[in-house]
């Protein structure tokens, strides 16, 4: 029964459209392993705590002075990591004691009682880890957000850490003058005609100000915090050391070092705003004249490693339903545009925005409205999604992108044999039959208990952690895309987009992506298909199915819009009807 719940839990992560933001709590008991571990030898334990904290403090302070060679901002930022290091080591020691006690209580580390006790330890420590990340900010929030995407991390941690918001208190603009002087060799007042002192937004790595150029154009100026590089180096050093020591805490032997290695690589990219500028321009070029997506233009002469100046764009948050309706934007249309944008990125472009949370997506009415849309929709406007923060992208190699397109096309015609062939290339023979079932919407629910058990046995899966290992066998790029699309899917579902909308949109772009070469142009040679997809009749059937879905969608959409317009007209006539009745 536990194994069945494990499979369902993993399947839910792939297809559920509701945010996992509800905390999982366990009632404390006298047998709490955390309390039991801290009672004996209290003096000895806290003496070791003091030794560890002193060593971390001294090493961090010495590193800050040595690495930054007297740079005041960097030294200040580096020394600011000392309190964070102390809090982190203190949490680690408490966690080590709790997990050690649990292992001593269950030497064999097996059985339902052990699983329940281990879940209790996870749940008792997760809230304090959440508070640690919230108060530490910066690298800690980035690390926690990355950890929530790894299924091998206990779900008690993931459910709480998913609540983290990348939001911090901005620093004063006067503290940013040094950054402008170093990057652009001019003071702030010489670069902009106007510069709002209050930050429009502030995140863990930078803050954004609204400004006006001497030409009169309004721009957004993204400025990296002074000395951030030193703080990031110090925090990553502490976290990497603890990650190495933490391997023995988790019974499955899961290694956390690779998370820190990926975080280090991501931060190296995010801290160079020239990379973000290049990514932004690449997406602008890829979307071309697409009327539903837009990207702010970069002002290159006012941008550098730590400063990014770009076109200012107004819009409402993708999660603000009241603001959307006030702007005459139907939420479901916004959800479909969002799905369409990211489906095009993954299936056609192979270049996917890596940070698709709601803070990086604004919505506004499209600049060029379709007159026929306004006529059929009863006055609703067509939405346009503004994509912000281009620091992180996931590149799908062309062969992987084509395999992903073929798998989705196979899902459309329920060709599971072709999907299994593709899965063999992705994860190998073991698990190749189970993977398509997990990835296909509704696939797991259509199986009997016997089939689920057979597939689980064929994949060599026993627990939830084992199911996570199947996902980790996928190419890392595809795992990242699954994480991104899960975030987009949740937002689109909250806006009213349905499962049929997602299937239709994915099928359209997957079929189109199968005929795109590495260079992004239609191939003059015949595309390579496998399995049932090699049949032209099958591909025509897929196209007919997609056409029928699109036609049905637009007919239903037009009917609903016409009905809403008719009801609005009746409400508009109500005052006249009341006057006639009174007369």
TrEMBL record:
InterPro entries: ABC1_dom (IPR004147), ADCK1_dom (IPR045307), Kinase-like_dom_sf (IPR011009), Mito_struct-func_regulator (IPR051130). Residues 163-421 form the ABC1 atypical kinase-like domain. It comes from the Eukaryota. SUPFAM superfamilies: Protein kinase-like (PK-like). PANTHER family: AARF DOMAIN CONTAINING KINASE 5, ABC1 FAMILY PROTEIN. Belongs to the protein kinase superfamily. ADCK protein kinase family. This is ABC1 atypical kinase-like domain-containing protein. It comes from Apatococcus lobatus.
